[in-house]
Design a protein that fits this description.
Length: 157
């Protein structure tokens, strides 16, 4: 079941990626995607090595101790979607959406934790996940804002 879930996430992520790539400004979405992948894998490696959590079933287990599918593909796409949906939003709306996205991802992680072998907690809990996702989403949103928001004229629906 774990492999089926991972392949479904990969296909879903590719579908969302194909949708996202058509929506300008590509440079900004690529920046969010690649920086999220870089920082999330960096952070995940630290926590996996500290034995806070583990990923017993994962892609390329001989090369990575983390779930590279989540860290390099799925979570970066979620960050792009978050940035896309919060474009032009007030701080309150952006934070509200960050809480909503985090709530949904944490609920999914809870389901995976209870029903699969995709993740095992040692010194980690769902509140850590919930708060870290909120912080990460807000961080990527305001790094993009700091670098310069996309030009609304270049954006399409």
């Amino acid at each position: 079941m774990e492999w089926v879930i991972q392949w479904l996430f990969l296909l879903l992520s590719l579908g969302v990626f194909l949708y996202w790539i058509k929506h300008p400004p590509f440079r900004d979405w690529a920046l969010v995607f690649f920086s999220t992948g870089y920082f999330s894998i960096f952070i995940a490696v630290i926590f996996v090595e500290e034995k806070s959590f583990a990923f017993p079933v994962r892609f390329l287990p001989e090369y990575f101790s983390t779930n590279v599918l989540y860290e390099f593909v799925f979570f970066p796409i979620i960050c792009v979607l978050y940035n896309y949906t919060t474009f032009g939003s007030t701080i309150e709306r952006a934070m509200g959406q960050a809480v909503l996205y985090s709530l949904l991802l944490t609920a999914a992680e809870f389901w995976f934790l209870k029903r699969t072998e995709l993740i095992v907690y040692h010194r980690w809990n769902l509140m850590h996940t919930f708060i870290s996702i909120i912080i990460f989403l807000i961080f990527t949103r305001y790094v993009l804002k700091w670098l310069g928001e996309p030009d609304p004229k270049k954006m399409r629906s």
